[in-house]
What we know:
heterodimer
Amino acid sequence: MPLLTLRESQIMKIHYLTGIGALFFVAIHILFRLIMPFGQSLEYENVVANYNNVYYVILLELMLIFISIHGFNGLRVILLELKQTPWWESIITILVLAAMIGVIAYGTRTIIIGSGL
Amino acid sequence: MDLKSGDNDNSEINPSGKVRIDDGREGLKGWLNPTRYGWERVSYWLQRLTGVGLLIYFIGHVYETSSLVNGIDAWNSMLELTQTTGGHIFLMLVIGASTFHTVNGIRLIFTESGIGLGKPGRPDYPYDATSLNYKQKSGIWVAIILAIIAMLYGGMVMFGDAS
């Protein structure tokens, strides 16, 4: 039985939408590094100030989720191109989902503590 | 002639008369075989290479940013590692990889939607696929050129700021 009930075409739509969404979020994220000299924007006080901006925090969380979904699904697609058996597909899906959840959880922890929520 | 159920696979009878089963999968060797590379195959390979590279960078970036929660000293220690000439060159590669992956990815979304593939035509010798037309090739070149421009701009910002 396939692990995911989503059709591959539906997963690819999610892949494309998260990719396009990530493009906009990353563009804003980079703009925050360019509104002042690059080195200055990375100073501790300025980064903490970014984390205290609620809109920026939401942007960071969305970016974390979108890039994780897009990136780990891309890895899944690559690994499934190499080999196709039900066992391999299930193992890869489980591992990729676990890694994705781990990265999102770890990044969310930083965002929560950094923003003082 | 009677056909057995196994006659539909990609089997091949060699001179010794033994049947060799070939499932048609080449795996990683097929990926890395450079003897059949056209621009489309270079694009296919680069899209996956940049994708895996960017995923590794993303995980590293999430980890390095987490030093923020350990205070200013931990943050500055992390910056000392990354805000170097080598760190800036690495970031330039990340900028180039992300720009290529984005632009080529948008081309692939259009392609999968049937945009830019052209009309189906009669297959005439030398049987070039009509879908691999100048629009597709131009898209790949645009992705490469924009990646180079973004790398140079990123380098100017980082090294210009450092000087």
